[in-house]
Amino acid sequence: RVLDGVVALFCAVSGVEPQSETVWRQAERYHVPRIGFVNKMDRSGADFFEVVRQVREVLGSNPVPLQVPIGAEENFRGVVDLITNKAIIWNDEDLGMTFQEIDIPEDLIDTVSEYREKLLEAVAEYDESLMEKYFEDPESISADEIRAAIRAAVIDMSIIPMMCGSAFKNKVFKSLLDSVCSFLQSPLDKE
Protein backbone atom coordinates (compact mmCIF):
# COMPACT_ATOMS: atom_id res chain seq x y z
CA ARG A 1 0.00 0.00 0.00
CA VAL A 2 2.92 2.34 0.46
CA LEU A 3 4.20 1.93 -3.10
CA ASP A 4 3.50 4.57 -5.73
CA GLY A 5 4.83 2.41 -8.54
CA VAL A 6 6.77 -0.75 -9.30
CA VAL A 7 9.57 -1.65 -11.67
CA ALA A 8 8.85 -5.33 -12.26
CA LEU A 9 12.12 -7.12 -12.91
CA PHE A 10 12.21 -10.14 -15.22
CA CYS A 11 15.16 -12.32 -16.22
CA ALA A 12 15.75 -12.32 -19.98
CA VAL A 13 16.45 -16.06 -19.80
CA SER A 14 13.94 -17.34 -17.20
CA GLY A 15 11.13 -14.93 -18.05
CA VAL A 16 8.07 -14.83 -15.81
CA GLU A 17 8.83 -16.90 -12.72
CA PRO A 18 6.51 -17.89 -9.84
CA GLN A 19 7.73 -15.04 -7.63
CA SER A 20 7.03 -12.65 -10.52
CA GLU A 21 3.43 -13.85 -10.56
CA THR A 22 3.09 -13.37 -6.80
CA VAL A 23 4.41 -9.80 -6.92
CA TRP A 24 2.23 -9.08 -9.96
CA ARG A 25 -0.92 -10.26 -8.19
CA GLN A 26 -0.11 -8.06 -5.20
CA ALA A 27 0.41 -5.06 -7.47
CA GLU A 28 -2.91 -5.79 -9.20
CA ARG A 29 -4.69 -6.13 -5.87
CA TYR A 30 -3.48 -2.74 -4.63
CA HIS A 31 -3.69 -1.02 -8.04
CA VAL A 32 0.02 -0.23 -8.25
CA PRO A 33 1.18 0.97 -11.71
CA ARG A 34 4.13 -0.89 -13.21
CA ILE A 35 7.01 -0.71 -15.66
CA GLY A 36 8.54 -3.99 -16.84
CA PHE A 37 12.31 -4.32 -17.04
CA VAL A 38 13.93 -7.36 -18.66
CA ASN A 39 17.37 -7.76 -17.09
CA LYS A 40 20.36 -9.96 -18.01
CA MET A 41 20.14 -9.30 -21.74
CA ASP A 42 23.84 -10.20 -21.91
CA ARG A 43 23.29 -13.80 -20.71
CA SER A 44 23.16 -16.84 -22.94
CA GLY A 45 19.57 -17.56 -23.99
CA ALA A 46 18.31 -13.98 -23.49
CA ASP A 47 15.12 -13.20 -25.41
CA PHE A 48 13.37 -9.88 -24.75
CA PHE A 49 10.36 -10.53 -26.97
CA GLU A 50 9.73 -13.95 -25.41
CA VAL A 51 9.54 -12.29 -21.97
CA VAL A 52 7.12 -9.69 -23.38
CA ARG A 53 4.97 -12.55 -24.70
CA GLN A 54 5.04 -14.24 -21.27
CA VAL A 55 3.98 -11.01 -19.53
CA ARG A 56 1.01 -10.88 -21.91
CA GLU A 57 0.01 -14.54 -21.68
CA VAL A 58 1.04 -15.61 -18.16
CA LEU A 59 0.30 -12.36 -16.32
CA GLY A 60 -2.63 -11.29 -18.51
CA SER A 61 -1.31 -7.77 -18.97
CA ASN A 62 -0.82 -5.41 -21.90
CA PRO A 63 2.98 -5.12 -22.29
CA VAL A 64 4.15 -2.53 -24.81
CA PRO A 65 7.87 -2.55 -25.68
CA LEU A 66 9.49 0.90 -25.53
CA GLN A 67 12.77 -0.49 -26.83
CA VAL A 68 14.18 -3.01 -29.26
CA PRO A 69 17.46 -4.59 -28.11
CA ILE A 70 20.53 -4.24 -30.28
CA GLY A 71 22.01 -7.71 -30.11
CA ALA A 72 21.53 -10.27 -27.37
CA GLU A 73 23.62 -12.48 -25.16
CA GLU A 74 27.33 -11.55 -25.40
CA ASN A 75 26.50 -9.27 -28.37
CA PHE A 76 24.04 -7.06 -26.44
CA ARG A 77 25.28 -3.53 -27.09
CA GLY A 78 22.31 -1.23 -26.65
CA VAL A 79 18.71 -0.49 -27.57
CA VAL A 80 16.62 1.38 -30.08
CA ASP A 81 14.33 3.80 -28.24
CA LEU A 82 10.96 3.46 -29.96
CA ILE A 83 9.66 6.79 -28.61
CA THR A 84 12.46 8.85 -30.17
CA ASN A 85 13.31 6.27 -32.87
CA LYS A 86 17.02 6.53 -32.02
CA ALA A 87 19.58 3.81 -31.38
CA ILE A 88 21.77 3.99 -28.27
CA ILE A 89 24.85 1.89 -27.57
CA TRP A 90 26.82 1.86 -24.33
CA ASN A 91 30.57 2.10 -24.00
CA ASP A 92 31.98 -1.06 -22.44
CA GLU A 93 35.22 0.69 -21.38
CA ASP A 94 33.46 2.67 -18.64
CA LEU A 95 30.92 -0.08 -17.83
CA GLY A 96 27.99 1.64 -19.52
CA MET A 97 28.36 5.00 -17.78
CA THR A 98 28.46 6.75 -21.17
CA PHE A 99 26.62 6.02 -24.40
CA GLN A 100 26.34 7.30 -27.93
CA GLU A 101 23.54 7.59 -30.45
CA ILE A 102 24.00 5.72 -33.71
CA ASP A 103 21.90 5.01 -36.78
CA ILE A 104 19.43 2.17 -36.38
CA PRO A 105 21.27 -1.00 -37.50
CA GLU A 106 20.16 -2.25 -40.93
CA ASP A 107 19.15 -5.68 -39.61
CA LEU A 108 16.76 -4.10 -37.09
CA ILE A 109 14.93 -1.61 -39.31
CA ASP A 110 11.95 -3.93 -39.97
CA THR A 111 11.68 -4.99 -36.31
CA VAL A 112 11.90 -1.38 -35.13
CA SER A 113 9.21 -0.31 -37.63
CA GLU A 114 6.92 -3.14 -36.48
CA TYR A 115 7.27 -2.37 -32.76
CA ARG A 116 7.14 1.40 -33.19
CA GLU A 117 3.86 0.91 -35.06
CA LYS A 118 2.57 -1.22 -32.16
CA LEU A 119 3.62 1.49 -29.68
CA LEU A 120 1.88 4.23 -31.66
CA GLU A 121 -1.21 2.05 -32.00
CA ALA A 122 -1.27 1.39 -28.23
CA VAL A 123 -1.07 5.09 -27.31
CA ALA A 124 -3.65 6.01 -29.96
CA GLU A 125 -6.04 3.36 -28.62
CA TYR A 126 -5.64 4.77 -25.13
CA ASP A 127 -5.78 8.49 -25.96
CA GLU A 128 -8.69 9.49 -28.21
CA SER A 129 -7.02 12.79 -29.11
CA LEU A 130 -4.14 10.84 -30.70
CA MET A 131 -6.42 8.46 -32.60
CA GLU A 132 -7.15 10.98 -35.36
CA LYS A 133 -3.46 11.84 -35.71
CA TYR A 134 -2.68 8.14 -35.83
CA PHE A 135 -5.07 7.54 -38.75
CA GLU A 136 -3.88 10.62 -40.66
CA ASP A 137 -0.14 10.12 -40.12
CA PRO A 138 1.19 8.02 -37.23
CA GLU A 139 4.58 9.73 -37.44
CA SER A 140 2.91 13.10 -36.67
CA ILE A 141 2.53 12.00 -33.03
CA SER A 142 5.36 13.69 -31.14
CA ALA A 143 7.61 12.07 -28.54
CA ASP A 144 6.08 14.30 -25.85
CA GLU A 145 2.56 13.20 -26.83
CA ILE A 146 3.67 9.55 -26.71
CA ARG A 147 5.20 10.02 -23.25
CA ALA A 148 2.09 11.79 -21.92
CA ALA A 149 -0.20 9.03 -23.23
CA ILE A 150 2.06 6.31 -21.82
CA ARG A 151 2.11 8.02 -18.42
CA ALA A 152 -1.69 8.27 -18.31
CA ALA A 153 -2.06 4.64 -19.46
CA VAL A 154 0.49 3.39 -16.90
CA ILE A 155 -1.19 5.21 -14.03
CA ASP A 156 -4.51 3.82 -15.29
CA MET A 157 -2.85 0.35 -15.46
CA SER A 158 -3.83 -0.07 -19.12
CA ILE A 159 -0.27 -0.41 -20.46
CA ILE A 160 2.89 -1.98 -19.06
CA PRO A 161 5.90 -0.30 -20.73
CA MET A 162 8.63 -2.90 -21.31
CA MET A 163 12.34 -2.09 -21.33
CA CYS A 164 15.50 -4.19 -21.35
CA GLY A 165 19.12 -4.01 -20.27
CA SER A 166 21.91 -5.49 -18.23
CA ALA A 167 22.45 -4.55 -14.58
CA PHE A 168 25.86 -6.22 -14.61
CA LYS A 169 27.24 -3.69 -17.08
CA ASN A 170 25.00 -0.71 -16.17
CA LYS A 171 23.37 -0.86 -19.60
CA VAL A 172 20.08 1.08 -19.85
CA PHE A 173 19.78 2.35 -16.28
CA LYS A 174 19.63 6.00 -17.27
CA SER A 175 16.71 5.16 -19.58
CA LEU A 176 15.03 3.13 -16.85
CA LEU A 177 15.35 5.91 -14.27
CA ASP A 178 14.06 8.45 -16.79
CA SER A 179 11.06 6.17 -17.40
CA VAL A 180 10.35 5.91 -13.68
CA CYS A 181 10.22 9.71 -13.52
CA SER A 182 8.24 10.03 -16.75
CA PHE A 183 5.67 7.24 -16.43
CA LEU A 184 5.10 6.28 -12.82
CA GLN A 185 2.96 8.40 -10.54
CA SER A 186 4.35 10.63 -7.84
CA PRO A 187 2.74 10.80 -4.37
CA LEU A 188 0.88 13.89 -5.62
CA ASP A 189 -0.90 11.77 -8.25
CA LYS A 190 -2.31 9.34 -5.69
CA GLU A 191 -5.77 9.59 -4.19
Verbal overview:
- With 191 residues, the protein is α/β, with parallel strands linked by helices.
- The protein has helices spanning 18-29, 48-57, 109-126, 128-136, 143-155, 173-183; strands at 6-11, 34-39, 63-65, 67-70, 78-81, 86-90, 99-102, 160-164.
- A four-stranded parallel β-sheet has the order 1-2-8-3, sandwiched between helices. Strands 4-5-6-7 form a four-stranded antiparallel β-sheet, covered by helices on one side.
- A hairpin with an 8-residue loop joins strand 6 and strand 7.
- Helix 3 crosses helix 4 and helix 3 (109-126) packs across helix 5 (143-155).
- It is globular.
- The mean pLDDT is 89.
What's this, in brief?
α3 (109-126) packs across α5 (143-155). It is globular and about 45 Å long. The strands form 2 sheets. It has a 4-stranded parallel sheet with strand order 1-2-8-3, with helices on both faces.
The span between the termini is 12 Å
- Global Rg: 16 Å
- Strand content of the residues, in percent? 15-25%
- Enumerate the spans where pLDDT stays under 50 for 5 or more consecutive residues: none
Order of helices and strands: EHEHEEEEEHHHEH
Give the number of DSSP strands.
8
Backbone shape: globular
The number of helical segments is 6
> Mind describing the biggest β-sheet?
4 strands, parallel
Strand order of the largest sheet: 1-2-8-3
Q: What is the arithmetic mean of pLDDT?
A: 89
Secondary-structure content class: alpha/beta
Measured as a percent range, the helix fraction is: 25-40%
